[in-house]
């Protein structure tokens, strides 16, 4: 802290020196700045940071005297140089300088143009937080700015669009939507079919993807596909990835793969970072379709590409996919390293690890026998899952409040028009007042009805999310989370953990779909066997089940249950099925974790015994 305070006066003196130098420089024109561009280019390629910072600040200040036709292409030249020379630090310093008092003395149209250019450069270097902080300090000034030329109006719209995009990267979708809508309005004032509206539709698709409104995400993606400007190819892979992800999340993986295949038949996007996102979605779809060998090959290439590009968020996702697939094919040590990296490596604008990374890592830890660590990471997964869905509920509430505010503004507009009409027609004052009150009452009724309907929808959605959190989608039994909650009930005194012995046989010989049918059928037979008992059945893993009972049951009765469930499953066409199980009493142990461990260990002992007898 002390060193920062000592440097601050030097920082201000440097800016003052730049301002005085700029003030006493004769008015520049585009031709006179060409040598300066060459000097900046030399400094950028040489990596002389002190020279770069001074020259860039002076150069930008000097563009204040140029016409719009001159400073627009010059700013684009500087942007290209920054990217070619990978000058991340210089770009960060320019962003800080643009928020300084010296920069604020410039004309708004020139300064805001530079802020737009530098924002795009910071995003290119994945410095999203710095871009967001720079724009956040100027939001009110940008909003109240009244540009006079079409180029300046486009700059204003782009700044709002960029800020909305940065909010979406933090999954602050409700906060981002007003910026997109306002940017779209400004673009349409310049041109009803402005090319940037295409980009807004893409980002809105991404925004609703984060908000888990997959139908809207699909709609905006198709809307963007139908409005691609001529020659605009720099976001096509990104757009197709958003569409494929929206379809995949709606449990339509075949449709998602069609979108991916159609794009790969004619890949036209030159942006590596956008294509990287496309690859990550491609892996997700391949995993969903069970094409795991293809997914592994693509995951290795994608992980290498993510390392080359250096995007921290995408690298986390690439590590997660590759780690899961390495685990599936038995490379457990590599899988553990990659999945730990997916959770523990630093990110930029995104907070925390991807939720599914915790679940993938938990499965790997369990297979490695690290059950306590696995339990800890499963709890982290559970907490992250709940936080995610609470955030989505907050987005819904925020959208509801935004809609309510729009209705309120519409009501004010109608009342204002009614008051104007009343002032112009005094002879009809009484009649007009009645009309105003009637319309106001009707609008209020509509508002109340709309809010009531939306609250009912919100309650139903919250209930659905809760069901998803505690229910296994394949068997409709309680899942591992529901099981861990049920352990807190002291009335349960007996725990049985059962594991299907023959699932790998059916997966290897008939495919994973047949394996899922086996799990589902066995679960149904177990429910039938336990239907007359005071017992609760859960699916806590791939082929692993748990039974909680609130009374003592003889061992031979339990053996009969298990035998009956296996026999009935065989009668359904699964002749190779077998099962191992372990029984533990709550009175044997001191903690719930030990209770699970004892039952689990006894199940594995039976499994070993079954193998040795075959």
TrEMBL record:
Residues 1-30 form the signal peptide. The keyword Nuclease does not apply. Keywords: Membrane, Signal, Transmembrane, Transmembrane helix. It catalyses: 2 GTP = 3',3'-c-di-GMP + 2 diphosphate. SMART domains: GGDEF. InterPro entries: Diguanylate_Cyclase, GGDEF_dom, Nucleotide_cyclase, Rev_trsase/Diguanyl_cyclase, TPR-like_helical_dom_sf. Its EC number is 2.7.7.65. Residues 491-614 form the GGDEF domain. The chain crosses the membrane at residues 436-458. It is an enzyme of class 2 (transferase). It holds the Pfam family GGDEF. PANTHER family: DIGUANYLATE CYCLASE DGCM-RELATED, REGULATORY COMPONENTS OF SENSORY TRANSDUCTION SYSTEM. This is diguanylate cyclase. It comes from Marinomonas colpomeniae. The lineage of its organism: Bacteria, Pseudomonadati, Pseudomonadota, Gammaproteobacteria, Oceanospirillales.
């Amino acid at each position: 802290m002390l060193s920062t305070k000592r440097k601050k006066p030097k920082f201000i003196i440097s800016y003052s020196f730049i301002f005085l130098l700029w003030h006493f420089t004769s008015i520049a024109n585009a031709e006179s700045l060409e040598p300066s561009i060459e000097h900046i280019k030399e400094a950028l390629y040489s990596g002389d940071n002190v020279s770069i910072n001074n020259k860039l600040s002076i150069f930008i200040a000097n563009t204040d005297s140029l016409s719009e036709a001159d400073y627009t292409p010059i700013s684009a030249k500087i942007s290209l140089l920054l990217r070619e020379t990978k000058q991340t630090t210089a770009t960060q310093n320019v962003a800080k300088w643009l928020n300084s008092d010296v920069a604020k003395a410039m004309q708004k149209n020139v300064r805001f143009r530079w802020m737009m250019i530098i924002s795009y450069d910071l995003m290119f270097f994945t410095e999203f937080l710095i871009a967001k902080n720079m724009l956040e300090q100027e939001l009110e000034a940008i909003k109240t700015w009244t540009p006079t030329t079409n180029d300046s109006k486009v700059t204003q719209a782009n700044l709002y669009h960029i800020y909305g995009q940065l909010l979406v990267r933090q999954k602050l979708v409700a906060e981002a939507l007003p910026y997109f809508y306002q940017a779209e309005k400004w673009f349409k004032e310049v041109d009803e079919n402005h090319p940037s509206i295409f980009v807004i539709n893409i980002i809105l698709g991404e925004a609703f993807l984060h908000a888990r409104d997959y139908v809207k995400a699909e709609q905006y993606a198709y809307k963007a596909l139908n409005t691609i400007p001529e020659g605009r190819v720099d976001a096509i892979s990104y757009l197709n990835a958003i569409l494929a992800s929206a379809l995949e999340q709606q449990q339509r993986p075949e449709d998602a793969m069609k979108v991916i295949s159609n794009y790969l038949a004619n890949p036209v996007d030159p942006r590596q970072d956008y294509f990287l996102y496309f690859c990550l979605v491609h892996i997700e779809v391949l995993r969903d379709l069970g094409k795991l060998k293809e997914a592994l090959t693509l995951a290795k290439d994608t992980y290498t590409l993510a390392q080359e590009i250096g995007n921290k968020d995408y690298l986390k996702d690439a590590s997660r996919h590759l780690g899961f697939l390495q685990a599936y094919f038995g490379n457990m040590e590599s899988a553990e390293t990659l999945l730990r990296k997916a959770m523990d490596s630093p990110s930029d604008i995104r907070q925390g690890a991807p939720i599914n990374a915790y679940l993938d890592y938990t499965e790997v830890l369990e297979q490695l026998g690290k059950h306590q660590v696995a339990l800890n990471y499963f709890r982290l997964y559970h907490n992250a899952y709940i936080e995610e869905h609470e955030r989505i509920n907050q987005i819904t509430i925020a959208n509801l409040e935004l809609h309510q505010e729009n209705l309120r503004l519409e009501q004010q507009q109608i009342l204002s028009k009614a008051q104007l009409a009343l002032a112009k027609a005094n002879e009809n004052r009484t009649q007009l007042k009645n009309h105003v009150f009637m319309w106001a009452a009707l609008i209020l009724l509509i508002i109340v009805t709309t809010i009531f309907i939306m609250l009912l929808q919100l309650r139903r959605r919250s209930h659905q999310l809760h069901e998803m959190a505690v229910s296994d989608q394949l068997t409709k039994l309680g899942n591992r989370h529901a099981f861990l909650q049920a352990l807190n009930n002291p009335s349960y005194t007996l725990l049985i953990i059962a594991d299907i012995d023959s699932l790998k046989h059916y997966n290897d010989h008939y495919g994973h779909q047949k394996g899922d049918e086996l799990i589902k059928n066995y679960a149904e037979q177990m429910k039938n066997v336990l239907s007359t008992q005071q017992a609760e059945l859960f699916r806590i893993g791939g082929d692993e089940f748990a039974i909680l009972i609130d009374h003592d049951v003889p061992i031979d009765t339990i053996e009969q249950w298990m035998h009956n469930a296996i026999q009935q499953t065989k009668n359904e066409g699964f002749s190779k099925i077998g099962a191992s199980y372990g029984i533990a009493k709550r009175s044997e142990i001191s903690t719930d974790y030990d209770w699970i461990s004892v039952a689990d260990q006894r199940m594995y002992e039976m499994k070993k015994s079954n193998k040795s007898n075959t």
